[in-house]
């Protein structure tokens, strides 16, 4: 069964001469760790935003866990998906506990069960000592970890993360990747974007490489590497398909 299905998706932003997505098509199975890869400006964030219902596509079809992404299913899909955006989506003047209580309340969680859940995740993500510290006093890696907790309080079956490991230290990165593997092993699907191809190669069962708003190639990283004898790793495959030209 399909976890995510994107069919012939088009999107042109208001005021842009060029479409950002030009007939994008791909599929990821349920329960997979999947990677959406591509050079700067390929349209990864736009795609994720449409998947999550934050941005509207102009045409095409998006199906999330067997539900069409349309107004009638938006509430249901909101509960299925957890979104970790590229930018930290936390209130800087509030503590982690205050932020997470607010996000938990948005999903209808309250009182002691919510507080226990928040403390459980703060411990899991190594933030328990900073639970009551304001977010603006957190390091970059701590903010990223807290940002992930905000997206998982409602136990989403599909976790979508936009560059969750960009700009964090090795320790935070390793912790985040281990969490993604563990969360996936409990049955959740994961979709993430990254420019770190070595990381994507080891983490993802399936990747889509997109460029200029289109899917270029999809497959299991090891299979793609073996299919191209000139390629030793996923980065070689990526360059093979997207070329060396710099992007604006
Ligand atoms: N809100 C917007 N309004 C107008 N154009 C936009 C908007 N958001 C993105 N774009 C344009 O759409 C194109 C794709 O952007 P997007 O952020 O989806 O790509 P990306 O693959 O995530 O890139 P990166 O790797 O740099 O994060 C870019 O040319 C960008 O300038």
UniProtKB/TrEMBL annotation:
Residues 4-237 form the ABC transporter domain. It comes from the Bacteria. Transmembrane segments: none annotated. GO terms for molecular function: ATP binding; ATP hydrolysis activity. PANTHER family: LINEARMYCIN RESISTANCE ATP-BINDING PROTEIN LNRL. It comes from Chitinophaga ginsengisegetis. Gene3D superfamilies: P-loop containing nucleotide triphosphate hydrolases (3.40.50.300). The keyword Kinase does not apply. Keywords: ATP-binding, Nucleotide-binding. This is ABC-2 type transport system ATP-binding protein. InterPro entries: AAA+_ATPase (IPR003593), ABC_transporter-like_ATP-bd (IPR003439), ABC_transporter-like_CS (IPR017871), P-loop_NTPase (IPR027417). It holds the Pfam family ABC_tran.
């Amino acid at each position: 069964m399909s976890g995510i299905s994107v069919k012939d998706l088009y999107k042109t932003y208001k005021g842009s001469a060029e479409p950002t997505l030009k007939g994008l098509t791909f599929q990821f199975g349920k329960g997979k760790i999947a990677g959406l890869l591509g050079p700067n400006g390929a349209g990864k964030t736009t795609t994720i935003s449409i998947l999550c219902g934050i941005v509207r596509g102009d045409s095409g079809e998006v199906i999330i866990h067997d539900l069409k992404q349309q107004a009638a299913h938006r509430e249901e899909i909101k509960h299925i998906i957890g979104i970790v955006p590229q930018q930290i989506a936390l209130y800087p003047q509030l503590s982690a506990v205050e932020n997470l209580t607010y996000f938990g309340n948005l999903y209808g969680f309250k009182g002691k069960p919510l507080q226990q859940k928040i403390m459980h995740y703060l411990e899991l993500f190594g933030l328990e000592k900073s639970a009551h510290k304001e977010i603006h006093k957190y390091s970059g890696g701590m903010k990223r970890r807290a940002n992930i907790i905000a997206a998982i309080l409602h136990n989403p079956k599909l976790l979508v993360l936009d560059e969750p490991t960009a700009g964090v230290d090795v320790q935070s990165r390793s912790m985040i990747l281990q969490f993604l593997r563990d969360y996936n092993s409990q049955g959740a699907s994961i979709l993430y974007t990254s420019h770190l191809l070595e990381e994507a190669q080891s983490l993802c069962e399936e990747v889509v490489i997109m460029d200029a708003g289109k899917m270029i190639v999809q497959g299991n990283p090891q299979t793609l590497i073996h299919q191209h004898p000139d390629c030793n790793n996923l980065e070689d495959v990526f360059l093979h398909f997207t070329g060396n030209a710099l992007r604006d």
